[in-house]
Structures are given as C-alpha cells and as structure tokens.
# Entry
Amino acid sequence: MTKEELELILKNGEGHRIEFKENVNSDLSKEMVAFANSSGGMILIGINDNSRIIGAEKSNDLSSKIQDIAQNCDPSIPLHIFDFENIVVLEIPEGLNKPYRNSKGFFIRNGANSQKMTTAEITAFLQTEGKVRFDEIVREDVDFDSNFDKKAFSEFLKLSSIVGILDPESMLQNLDSIFVSKEKVFFNNAGLLFFSKDPIAHLFYCSVICALYKGTEKLTILDRKELRGNLIQNVDDALLFLKKHLNLRYEINSTRREEILEIPEVALREAVINAVCHRDYFEKGAQVMIEIFDNRVEISNPGGLPKGLTPEKFGKRSIARNPIIANLFQRSRFIEKMGTGINRMRQAMQQAKLPFPTFEFDGYFVVCLYKNSSAKGGIEGGIEGGIEGGINITGILKVPDKQKEVLELIRENNRISIDEVAKKLDINRSAAQKHFEGLKEKNIIVRRGHRSGYWEILS
# Structure
C-alpha cells in the first residue's frame, strides 16, 4: 500500500471491499466471514466510521488476537496482516472453501455492510457455489415403489451394456441414483429424471420445448412440442423433432445410400445432450429450448457456464454442473468422453463446411448452429471450411489472416471487447478496431447492443 492509495481509500470511505475498524473487537469475525464469502477485501484497523485515522499499533499480541479470531471461523480464514503509517491492515482473499461462518451465522458483503444471510439466501448461496448439487438431492416426497419405471431402467441397462446380476436397488445404488435409509428407498433427483414413470409430475420445469418457426425470428410458430419423458427419451425425441424439420439429402456410396442432414447429426446430438445434461435445474422459471429457424438451429438451457469455468477455458476444460446426470449419460453411451462435446460440434460443422457453432453464456447457455448459405448482406455460401480453411465467399471476398484470428476469438467469446482482442493478438487498439471495422464492412459480423451487447457472426 502507498500513501496515495491510503488517501484514496479514506476519501472514498467504506465500500464493498473496504471496512474501517477503530479497534479489534468481537465484530471482526463478522467482517472476515463476509469478505471471505464475497470477493475478498481489506479491514483497516485504527480508522473510525468518519474516515478519520485514530491510530493502531501492530504488536505480537494484536496479531495473535486477530489470528485467533480468523482461526475460530468455520472454516478458518487465511489472511495477511501488515501495518502502514499508524494503522493495521488485514487483507482477506476470497475464500476457497465457501461458505464461511462465525458463531452468529453466515454473512456476506452487501455494499458497505456485512449482512447476515437468511435460510433462503444460504440455500441459494450453496447452490451457486456448487456445494449443493441438484442431482444429489434426495426426494423423500416421492414414493419409490409406485414411481420406479422398470422398463426405463431395463433400457438403460441395455444401452450401458450392464449385465443385471444384482437386484435393481443394488444397481441403482451403484449408479448413485437412489438413497436407502432404514430399509426405505428414495430417488435422488438424478434417479427421478432417468428412472421414474413421470418425471415431469415431480419436476414440472424439466420438460424440453421444441419449436419450428417461420423465417429467422420468433414470430410465427409452425410446430411446437413439449417433451415430458425421462432424460434419455427427451434427447431421443428432440433429435426426432430436429430430423423431421431439417432438410435431408442423399449420397450414394458404392452400394449404400447415406442420409445427410443439412446440419450434422453429431453436432445436433452433442448440443441437445449438453443442454439437458448441464442445465441449471435449480432454475424453475425456464426450460431447455430447441428452436429451428430458416437459417439456424438454437439450443439453449438455463444456466451459463458452471462456477470455475471461464469463457477462456470453455471447450478446453470440463466441469459438470450435474455430475450424476453426466455420469448416467456417459454410462448409457450418450456421452463418449467427458469434455469432448464442444470440440465434436466444431469438428462436425467444419467437416460439413458450415460455420463453426456460436456460444453465449450470459445466464443462459445458447448454442447456435447455422445452416448452409444462411448469411445476409450478399454473403453466400457461408464460411468454406471454417476458420482453419480460411474464408472465401463466392471466390471474390478474401479475409486477411488477422481478421480470421479476430473471428476465431469472437467464436470463442462473442462478448469479447476490442481491447481484449488487441491484447490477445499483441496489436494496438486502433489496429484491432480496423479489423473489426473490416469485418463489419464485409457484413461478416454485426454488433448487437452497446456496452452489454455482443458480436454476432452472420456467416
């Protein structure tokens, strides 16, 4: 800390990451817990609420007292103590083992205050932090015997190539799909979604909505279907809906005829499974949506990227929001290998000489798969061979290598800023700006919205 930084802190006063304390007292643990449960912060001891320095001297006794308070939080809170001028500063990082609490409860930072969380807020906090997983929750409100679907379970065993040597309950336990307590059997949410007779009767918002629209906007619905089966049935039925409404062509190879969808089935399948497997099932106000337009297919689910996965790591690293559901899909051969789905989508689209999929992660996870010749503004034929093969539109319009790199970055993160592109490509901002302008002039990209908007690739 410098003198200028301290002066700025005193001028701005207490805030989301700054707390003043005149001395060390019992309330200190509340502030520690709140900062650890939020994004971290600093506690400055020796300053009153009016931002006036009254002074505090660092000593072994004071440091020991502060460390004792931090150790008595649950879990204990790591912190760094140092003195500056005549104040003592505690630096508290964002906690790695949330939630933290003291003897009075759980606290979180709300503006310049440390606020005690209600039971509902604690539950939501645990969900957000991934400490409570939807698919693990035991459903004591659902009678197992009357709701268990033996046929669905038998089909799952066939798909999984599991030999039924054990009784169903033992196998379901091994699949982490039920909970047994005092000889009574209960589904967890994963088991309910895979192996119950009517999952939607107990989880009404877990159906999948399929829709076919006229044109490229959500104005006229030509066909709509709500899928209300178990998760495997819903994936199969969603693919049937897509095949019903997408164009099909045939290729004759030697003695057999091959059916080829206008969007590769591999890409569609991976996108549907991804949506059903990784949706945020705590969100009850939204459903998985599979929407067909004249120029594209959009598959969306509530919940952006799971905690711990950033846009930069997307497609390179896999984090399962619902690990039991993901494991059941993998066992049933719907998922070939965890973490490969996004790359399989990209490869399938590239091999079909279609634009790479675009992804959005803001509250919703949206995959957009464009059909051939879906571009606007005079761009016909789409992107030949994707980014790696270069872009050649009707043999006339050529895109320079740097602009291809910009396009690739937009495909990875359609909310990327010009400054971020400049940094990643090691060029100055004005050069990056020119590349964006060049792509806009060619009608390859367009900006949707302003500060909180995103880039849309038109071809």
User: Anything to note?
Assistant: DSSP finds 16 helices and 22 strands in the chain.
